[in-house]
Specification:
- By secondary structure, the protein is of the alpha+beta class.
- It has helices at residues 9-21, 27-35, 44-58, 75-85, 95-102, 164-178, and strands spanning 66-69, 108-111, 114-125, 131-140, 147-155, 183-184.
- Strands 1, 2, 3, 4, 5 and 6 form a six-stranded mixed beta sheet that branches.
């Protein structure tokens, strides 16, 4: 659709039909596509992903959700899930940087004047290894050894209300207990 000739209305019709059959796409998407000022490739894959997630959420058995560590192999899926779970603050909130840093031993990061260190992130995944949510634990220089902080705790919108958030919180609490800290913040 990007830079489509003004006379090629079939592309615009395809965009209208797509949105009509995919309610997650917005009217703004149609306007942008019809004006030919932006590529459909930015909007349509997101809408299709959200529809696929919504369909998967309907058949999800919460008992089959497991918590696994973040690894370099599941990092791309974790970043996608983190951005989806925190999309209201994207631009400012960026789980990708923290997820990547946590895979480097002894990585530290300054955030709000506080040194964050020893971050470990975990993912809630289903039987098909789709990342449904994220959580993490990290220390700060100020209270190292006394407390752990919960970081990037979120559940993708399509999977909310299914007990996944509770599993992530319970997992975070159990991990903090294993490290014998006094506080979980």
């Amino acid at each position: 659709v990007q830079n489509a000739p003004e006379t090629d209305h079939s592309l615009y019709q395809d965009a209208y039909e797509f949105v009509e059959h995919h309610p997650i796409a917005s009217a703004a998407t149609v306007g942008i596509l019809a004006a030919g000022t932006y590529a459909a490739s930015r909007y349509i894959p997101y809408a299709m992903t959200q529809r696929a997630l919504a369909a998967a959420a309907k058949t999800l058995n919460p008992e089959e959700v497991r918590i696994v560590p973040l690894t370099s192999e599941n990092l791309p899926k974790a970043i996608e899930a983190g951005k989806d779970g925190f999309r209201y603050g994207m631009g400012f909130l960026n789980p990708a940087a923290d997820f990547r840093a946590s895979l480097t031993p002894m990585a530290t990061k300054m955030h709000a004047g506080q040194r964050e260190m020893n971050a470990r992130y975990f993912l809630a995944v289903d039987k098909e290894n789709r990342v449904l949510g994220t959580t993490g634990l990290y220390q700060t220089a100020k209270d190292q050894g006394d407390a752990l902080w919960v970081g990037w705790m979120s559940v993708r919108p399509a999977f909310r209300g299914k007990g996944i958030g509770q599993k992530l919180v319970d997992f975070s609490i159990d991990e903090a207990k294993k490290q014998n800290v006094d506080y979980l913040r």
